Amino acid sequence: MRFVLILPLFLLISGCALFNAQPEIIIGVTLPLSGSDADYGQRVLTGINLKCSELNEQAGKDEPKVSLRVIDNKSTSLGSAEAIKSLATWYKTPLIIGAYSSSSTFAMRPEAEKYQVPVLAPTATADNLTLGNEYIFRTCFTDATQGRCLGSYAYHQQKMRKIAILVDADEENAQNRYLGFEVKKSFTECGGEVVLMDGFYNHESTFNRQLRNIVEAKVDGICFLADAQNAVRFIKESRIFGFDGFIFGGDGWDEENIYTDLGTNPGKCFYFGMFSPHYEYPEVKTFVENIMNISARVPAACEAQGYDTLGIAVKALKSGKKGAELRQEILNIKDYHGVGGTISMRPDQNSDKLIFVKGITVENGKTVSRLNKIITFEVDKGKMSCIK
Question: Do 291 and 337 fall within a single domain?
Fold first, then answer.
């Protein structure tokens, strides 16, 4: 799938323009290529490598080629902190993409500021990630934005008036709780009622206790905030239990097994994502085909965010600037057209980005995911709009 050279400090240098004598645009990348998040990190890197190859193929004879310096952070915060230090000092990369999770990206903050090296986070959604640090940026939406839109969408678009919220309460999944609070705040501000907010732990074998309370509360929908594997388990059990209302979730659901493993009785379900292979944009079809040829899987948010984030990084780096001046170039990026829709950087170093609402349905006896709506959200005005 890619050619790599193993070097000390677990450094992997991508084959893009490695031995080319032409001028280079050098970009650092640190992702989890081993450890618990390895599958996600590999998928982000697949998107990055694809965009790198395309940009180099399109470059003119005298134009600089893109060259990547990739370090495995081993799915740890310590690995991310060590990686950014190596990339910034030893390899002198002017910009770094990483790290995947919010916790690992947060560990990069001190070195990013110390060496004035901007970090572009493709998938880290924690709200406090960019606060108090001028060199951390993100190309995805935040938990606060996603939560506000989930609550508003449930109330205004799906006409729910009473919901329950159930979150993964394990300590390492604290972001689900933060997202749950945002959904509750948004839904109640719209005029709805959150009659029950509860949690579950991954060691629990059944959702019987939570479902009993939820069904007794006679809610219109359940906001279930966890990963796709737990969502599949919960949806199946809910339908057997007799709950026929909406079940909906955030971008944690956005994995292929949410529909391949769900069976033929999903009921009314929807979830949010950063990308949809059904998005009617000219580049998306080619992107999907290319990723499937590389990895034999339908691309999701990881591949798309990696692909678009590298495009944004190169756009900023073509200015030839570094440090504080490069930081300003990133902030100047508006309406970048990627496979995940338009991305604009905001003064707070977060981005305005489309949110894709996906429904789960049964077609010809097969459970599939389909694009229902596309949401834009004006952070300054707190206004959500559905454009499809």
Answer: yes
